[in-house]
Structure prediction request, 193 residues.
Amino acid sequence: MQTLARIIGTAAVAVAAVALTACGGNDDNGSATTSSTVAGAQPTAGTSAAAAPTASHGRECTADDIGVTGGFGQAPTITIPDNCDPPKQLVTKDLVEGTGPAAATGQPVEMNYTLVTWSDKKKLDSSFDRGQTFPLTLGTGEVIQGWDQGLIGIKQGGRRLLIIPPDLGYGQGGQGVKPNETLVFVTDAVKVG
Prediction:
């Protein structure tokens, strides 16, 4: 099993190439995604050999549609429903508020996480399984945009659900992630600062 560190660590190498190809964009709701913060996310427009789209269920899933069991510090079980579509925008929800300091851009954090991919509803990676936290400096491009944006404000001791659309994740795929894949993370902020 690939570790998230390998997945998002090697993505930084691709930043320059991605920045050069990120001229096209997806601004469905006018939300800006700039190449200056790209960290492994690849554009989703155009000519990929992505899997055929599935039939729409008529509504996008919300954070409340995702089932999560387990509390802070416990390996979560994530259940993705079959009756709604993956969100097109980043979705975050604090499952446990936390009581420590809130994470800010440029600050070191240590996270535990479990990742489930939307298309097959299977766990791709989990630091809980390895018993080892994942350290990073938030907002500096060390990780995918969905983490850099979605973890801002998480408090130490907090658990947050992140639903990350392809344009803030791995776009056209790579590092074990399928093209145009929506990523569902449950993250625990073990240490902030």
